[in-house]
Design brief:
The complex is a heterotrimer of chains A (336), B (300) and C (321). With 336 residues, chain A is mainly alpha-helical. Helices cover 74% and strands 0% of the residues of chain A.
Chain lengths: 336, 300, 321
């Protein structure tokens, strides 16, 4: 018997196109997404609402009089019942009015946008580097598994997984910034002022992110390639006269990329979290730094907004991955 | 810090069967035992270091001595001293204690809460199952580290806080793993027989289900341990984990970062230790998995 | 010239000999059945013939196709032969096709691989082939994915792929085993017809005596990786010389020809097939044979002319078991 893939689910009955099944699935999936989003927002809101200490107090400092605290509290709308605060907040999120930071009084939306200009490219670059490492390594590890080279790759991968990304970042700084002075060690200029320098500032952080991610992904790539190599359809392809390379590329690629794509989606949260840490190592003014500062300053509304943003991103990515992999694999479309 | 999702499947190389009846090649055998051996050794060393550190370290890890600041390795200080003159080796050993504590807390929380949830979902089925799995999905939406950051913001930074957050974030993984394994067992013949004898559900769980999922859980626990170590290191590096002056390896890296150009070893030693510890638990987990579930994947 | 001449073909895997000393000839248009239980090495033999065993298997001997030895041939040249001169049908139709590729494309691929030409031409040929294997709506089938088709349909598609380039030899490894009983007969009939139309030789591998007896001119009986009996179908089935063949016949025909009365136990061959590499030395069958003696510690040679057998104590002609 061929290998049983964990993602193989019920097959479509003979003859049905599966299109109506996909539509039903989509509807179900979107409603789950919406429900989860709502639940997530409630959780975030409640968690930070029950924190000790009044934001107004924090803003005004310990010297403030109770009256001014009360007044500011009212002004900020924090004396309203919880459910109304929640509704206001969600309404604000949805309409794009993120409110103002308690500390800096600056509009949060603007701050977040600015920091995204750093973090988003960083994550994308990190992902690209990760894939650029994972695919060759994973394929090589699978093809060479019986030889010494395969073991060497496996060991390297193990080490890559074990090294924390901030250590990787620091080592990169040591080598490339301190000793060789090729790339900047920290800081960031805006894209508009010096795009090339801005890009250079992202290289080392992206590599730090990408190397670790690449090590993790390469194991999945290897596993996917092995599944293809052991499959019956690959043997059929060889029996048709395709040589090893042709069979692997023409028949294996699409089959193998399905599980890898799934894992990719699952790794996005790790990338986001990794970016938070890496931004700290390289002092980049990204979303992570913004979050950490807000945490340190107890600027709760910023924390809420950013956490919600991240949660939404994670859920959205999961949703996209789910949907696209069901589109890629013609077998899926029926019940789970 | 990557979230290794419940990677239940063993290394496919573990079960390369060409034709039913052939044994694993010698090469594969060596690889697995090697994995377990090296991983086990590393873990044992860490445990030993931690145990010793409970009673004795060459110097007090917290003792400051400005006259000895940034000293290189010597017979007095095998790994040198940091910028406050604290002995690095003593701090590394102290860190070992913390590593084990962190891992233990996370794994304990994830297991103690996650496993019963998974069992309940598997056994009850129906609405309870759906509800539990939705809840579990919800927790999935928040990356572990993010939860830890938020919790640190809420109640202040400490090892316990950080590790609780990690543990909670991994409840879904354990619940899922438990649920799917339990589902397989619950529908198996001998459980149905036990049911026919009107064994209470709890008895069935304890006597039939738990022993069978033990091996899968042990593997997941080992892998979670390594993830917890990474998470603790990261959080401490960010200042949201173990607070100073306690000797957390992650914190040591952060404190040494300013001296990167002058004294890179100060950064590298704790970094290497973190990597080795994580590697050790990963190898241990992989090795255990290959031994405990040798034929999960059949091939031609 | 003989189409296929196999000489002392042997396969060694992990130190164990899984196929040993297999020799036979196959003429153009001839139909040869290879029969044995699972674990007898028959599939390994087929895979060894076309060089599709894994790298760990050590293959020795000679396999001459039109005089050219396939053993030791360069991979590139083997690739040219596979699908073109030799068509192959495997056992598991459910997994033998690429699940994410449309079936028409998979059939057209064989054509393009060996005959070149445009996509359109290959597609046309694919539709033609699908018609030949009795699909009434080749267009619709060509557009389908494998999971939308039944096992029988998939096997027919694999047959279409196997004969796409008019091969001289078709290797069919248990082509009907995974199919429903009702579909099996149809499949065999179709296989026979298509092979005749091409004038191709057929090597049909099966554990099912009924299948090979209806389709094949000659039979090879394999056990323990070795040929134990070899001869014209009628002769082997009516006058088996090797105890294993006799045992197979007894077990398979007992139900249908009424030699066993109602309520009586079915005949079996005592013992079970040993795992690979664990066959006894000397005569491979002696651990299960009722006629074994000390003499059987020495491997009996395969001889006897057109109806050959490898046994020191063969069943006498004229008796049944």
């Amino acid at each position: 018997m061929g290998t049983a893939q964990p993602w193989q689910v019920a097959r479509c009955p003979t003859g049905e196109t599966g299109r109506d099944l996909v539509a039903t699935y989509l509807i179900r999936r979107i409603s789950t997404l919406a429900a989860t989003l709502v639940a997530a927002s409630v959780v975030v809101f409640l968690l930070l609402a029950v924190l000790p200490g009044k934001p107004a107090q924090v803003i005004l400092g310990t010297q403030a009089t109770p009256q001014s605290v009360a007044q500011l509290t009212k002004q900020l709308g924090l004396d309203a019942p919880l459910w109304r605060q929640y509704v206001n907040w969600v309404h604000g999120l949805v309409t794009g009015h993120f409110g103002n930071s308690y500390i800096s009084q600056l509009p949060i939306g603007h701050q977040i946008a600015q920091s995204l200009a750093v973090t988003a490219p960083l994550i994308v670059l990190g992902l690209i580097i990760g894939l650029a490492i994972a695919v060759p390594f994973g394929v090589a590890a699978a093809l060479l598994r019986r030889r010494g080279a395969g073991a060497l790759i496996a060991s390297t991968t193990q080490i890559g997984i074990a090294v924390p990304n901030f250590i990787a970042g620091l080592v990169l700084i040591l080598v490339f910034a301190v000793k060789l002075s090729w790339l900047p060690a920290s800081g960031f200029v805006t894209w508009s002022s010096d795009p090339w320098l801005a890009f250079k500032s992202l290289v080392l952080p992206a590599v730090a992110l990408g190397v670790v991610e690449g090590a993790v992904l390469s194991r999945y790539v290897r596993s996917a390639v092995l599944d293809v190599l052991r499959s019956d359809y690959l043997r059929t392809a060889r029996a048709k006269g395709l040589n090893r390379r042709q069979a692997l590329v023409r028949h294996g690629f699409r089959n193998g990329s399905i599980p890898v794509l799934t894992v990719l989606g699952l790794e996005i949260p790790s990338l986001i979290v990794g970016a938070v840490v890496v931004e700290s190592v390289f002092t980049l003014p990204g979303v992570g730094t913004l979050l950490l500062q807000a945490v340190a300053n107890r600027d709760l509304i910023v924390v809420e907004d950013i956490v919600m943003l991240i949660a939404v991103t994670v859920l959205a990515v999961n949703f996209l991955v789910d949907v696209s992999y069901r589109l890629l694999d013609p077998r899926i479309g029926a019940a789970r | 810090m990557s979230v290794q999702m419940a990677d239940l499947s063993p290394d496919p190389a573990a079960v390369e069967l060409l034709v039913p009846g052939t044994r694993l090649s010698v090469w594969d055998r060596v690889r697995h035992d090697w994995s377990l051996l090296v991983g086990g050794t590393i873990v044992v060393c860490i445990v030993l270091a931690a145990l010793v550190a409970v009673f004795w370290t060459p110097y007090d890890p917290l003792a400051v001595d400005p006259t000895q600041a940034l000293a290189p390795a010597s017979w007095h200080h095998l790994f040198g001293t940091d910028q406050y003159g604290r002995d690095v080796l003593s701090r590394l050993m102290g860190g070992a204690k913390l590593v084990l504590f962190s891992g233990a807390v996370s794994v304990a929380i994830a297991t103690v809460v996650g496993v019963p949830i998974g069992l309940a979902a598997a056994v009850r089925g129906g609405v309870v199952d759906e509800a539990l799995m939705r809840l579990v999905d919800l927790v999935y939406a928040f990356p572990a580290l993010l939860a830890a950051i938020v919790l640190a913001a809420a109640v202040g930074a400490s090892t316990l806080t950080a590790m609780s957050a990690i543990g909670i974030a991994y409840i879904p993984v354990f619940a899922r793993v438990t649920r799917s394994s339990a589902l397989q067992i619950v529908s198996s013949e001998y459980v149905l027989a036990a049911r026919a004898y009107r064994r209470s559900t709890l008895a069935i769980l304890v006597r039939h289900v738990l022993p069978n999922i033990r091996s899968i859980l042990i593997v997941q626990m080992s892998l979670l341990f390594s993830l917890a170590i990474l998470a603790e290191a990261g959080l401490s590096y960010l200042g949201l984990g173990t607070p100073a002056p306690a000797p957390s390896w992650g914190r040591m890296v952060e404190e040494a970062q300013d001296y990167l150009s002058n004294d890179p070893l100060l950064v590298l030693w704790p970094g290497v230790f973190i990597a080795v510890a994580v590697l050790g638990f990963n190898l241990l987990g992989d090795g255990l998995r290959d031994i405990l579930d040798p034929r999960l994947r059949s091939s031609r | 010239m003989t189409l296929l001449e196999v000489d002392t073909l042997a396969v060694e895997l992990g130190g164990a000999a899984v196929v040993g000393d297999v020799s036979f000839r196959l003429e153009r248009g001839e139909r040869l059945g290879l029969i044995g239980e699972s674990g007898s090495g028959k599939s390994m033999t087929a895979l060894a013939l076309i060089g599709l065993l894994t790298d760990e298997a050590i293959v020795s001997g000679h396999v001459l196709l039109d005089g050219r030895d396939l053993i030791g041939m360069a991979e590139a040249q083997l690739c040219e032969l596979r699908g073109d001169r030799i068509g192959m049908i495997f056992q598991e139709p459910m997994t033998a096709l690429n699940p994410v590729m449309r079936v028409g494309h998979q059939v057209a691929e064989v054509v393009r691989q060996h005959r070149g030409g445009s996509r359109r031409a290959a597609r046309g040929r694919a539709l033609e082939l699908l018609g030949r294997v009795e699909f009434r709506d080749p267009e619709r089938i060509a557009r389908s994915y494998p999971h939308e088709l039944s096992g029988g349909q998939r096997q027919r598609i694999i047959l279409a792929m196997a004969v796409a380039c008019s091969p001289a030899l078709v290797l069919a490894d248990e082509p009907t085993t995974a199919l429903d009983v009702t579909v099996q007969a149809q499949m065999l009939r179709l296989l026979g017809r298509v092979v005749s139309e091409e004038g191709a030789a057929l090597m049909l591998i099966s554990h099912d005596l009924a299948v090979v007896s209806s389709m094949c001119d000659r039979l090879l009986v394999m056990y323990g990786g070795r040929i134990v009996e070899h001869g014209p179908t009628a002769a082997v089935l009516e006058q088996p010389r090797h105890p294993y063949t006799a045992g197979l016949l007894a077990t398979s025909s007992a139900m249908s020809d009424g030699t066993v009365a109602h309520g009586q136990p079915l005949p079996t061959i005592r013992g079970s097939v040993p795992g690979l590499g664990r066959f006894p030395d000397g005569c491979v069958f002696r651990s299960r044979c009722g006629r074994a003696t000390d003499a059987c510690r020495v491997r009996p040679p395969l001889d006897g002319g057109t109806h050959a057998f490898a046994c020191w104590h063969p069943i006498e002609t004229g008796t049944r078991s």
